[in-house]
Amino acid sequence: MAGFRASLHALMRPQAVIVHVDVGTQALGPAVHNASCGRVPVLIFAGLSPYTLEGELHGSRTEFIHWLQDVPDQKAIVSQYCRYTAEIKTGKNIKQMVNRALQFATSDPKGPVYLTGAREIMEEEIEPYQIVQEHWSPVITGTLPQSAVEEIATSLVEADSPMIVTGFTGRRQESVAKLTNLADRIPGLRVFDAGTTEMSFPFNHRASINPTWGAGMWIQNADVILVLDCDVPWIPSQRKPRADARIYHIDVDPLKAQMSLFYIAATARYRADSGAALVQLLDFITSNEGMMMGLAEPMYSQRWTSLGVIHASNLQGSAAKAILPSQGSNSPINIAYLSARIRDCLPRDTIYATEAVTNHVRMMEQLQPSIPGTSFTKGAGGLGWSCGAALGMKLAKPEAFVCSITGDGSFIFSHPTAVYWISAHYGLPTLTIVLNNGGWVAPR
């Protein structure tokens, strides 16, 4: 549960989790999986069984369990999910080791790191020393080459049906405004937020599309697609771009180094910071007099109007799904009606930690998140995330109203006893809504 709590708090700044040797590391399972796929910077520290047993050093073995927890390669339990793993072998450079780990955690693509240390090291006596903390900043991700800026901007502006598919852009909340500005500058541009971790494009913008509004159809029809910091822009066995579509891929990790299989038919791919790339594209378009004159032509005004009409129609269609069930107030509730009531009853700036799994798409259609930093879900497939994550968000933003929405199976996985003890003990009030569909539906 600590891992889940840290994962959402770490979206604000890196967090640390301390666990007990190999067994505590194993208990992190789904949390470290989510943190890795969700690009969450978390430093994990775990002890090791003492490596002396006759009192040769401070920290030698004193308990029966020290023998049983002496495993050959403890870091192997989580190493494939981590950006960096290492053992602290002396206290004399412990600050450098911790800062090196944090550099990996906070450099793109961000993710968990794992350090271990035996009890002898933790009890080692050392002379106090200082380091220059400013020397341990994360690596700065690059920008697009100017030729790429010109090509991508021109392609989006001149396309008949341009589209952006985004995923992690909302991790930096200021990037959402930049993406919104780009959609405003290119009337007719559609944006599909395909990410699962946070809101990257406002639902209430006329350029917004989602799976229930035919996002797959627009992907199939688009002639130019910009994939922006996204792990799964589409599922080719279900929907994929047309064969002649020009696809550009901008990502801090365009090769997806931790995935054994990943590829998209991109015309060009760039390792770059998406927020910086958006600024470059906006600056190029707005400083290009000929391009701005072209965007003022009636064709683009018609596209802008058409987007508004389609968006309004989609909203009406979603509202029609959220009516009271025909049997009245005593009938079983449905996800559309419940989600719409949650949206209407809770504060507009409520922060949601959602884990609805099979109901996720229909739920988001009704919650309609439009404020950056107010909608989050787990980074991957590790269930039991939302309740602990809600506590993490409440820690990060004590003044916020935080709501966790979870399935009944995920709720059981969340260690609710620990969640609510921590909530009460540390004064972290959150609202939990459990969607009870009577079982684990996802694996059926």
Q: What does this molecule look like?
A:
The protein is α/β, with parallel strands linked by helices. The chain has helices at 2-9, 21-27, 29-37, 65-68, 94-106, 119-122, 146-158, 173-185, 215-221, 274-287, 289-295, 298-321, 335-345, 360-367, 386-396, 408-413, 416-425; strands spanning 15-19, 42-48, 84-87, 113-118, 162-166, 190-193, 208-209, 224-228, 246-251, 268-271, 351-355, 375-377, 402-407, 431-435. It has a 6-stranded parallel sheet, sandwiched between helices. The chain has a 4-stranded parallel sheet with strand order 1-2-4-3. A 4-stranded parallel sheet has the order 12-11-13-14. α14 (360-367) links the parallel β11 and β12 (375-377). α1 (2-9) crosses α15 and α13 (335-345) runs parallel beside α14. The chain is globular.
- Main-sheet strand order equals 7-6-5-8-9-10
- Overall pLDDT metric: 93
The biggest beta sheet reads: 6 strands, parallel
Low-confidence stretches: none
How many whole angstroms does the radius of gyration measure?
Answer: 24 Å
Count of helix runs: 17
Structural class: alpha/beta
* N- and C-termini, Cα separation: 26 Å
Number of strands: 14
- How much of the sequence lies in strands comes to 15-25%
